[in-house]
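[Meeting: bench + compute handoff]

Bench side (C.D.) handed over the final construct sequence. Compute side (W.E.) agreed to return the predicted structure before the next meeting so the bench team could plan truncations. Sequence as handed over:
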Amino acid sequence: MFGENEPDHFEALMKEIYDVIIDMYEQDYDNGLLRLRAVLDKATGNDVSVCWLKRRTTWIGASQKKGVCHMLANVNTIKSWVLVNG
């Protein structure tokens, strides 16, 4: 759908979600589930207004934003839901 010379809009979405959640992610929590819930809540509450995909399509909803958080963990952009410093 996008041309080869277009910027990677998904990468832009991932960066924007990261920028939104990182402060919440780095806070202290009693356990990983509390961290996960706080981060997902923060991600879904953001409009991701910089992301072209959100502005020009209806593809980005709460489920997709949550999925991006898990993708950030999968590629080690954020380390773990349980052990932030581990």
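W.E. noted at the follow-up: The helical segments are 9-25, 32-44, 52-56, 62-74. C.D. will use this when planning the next construct.
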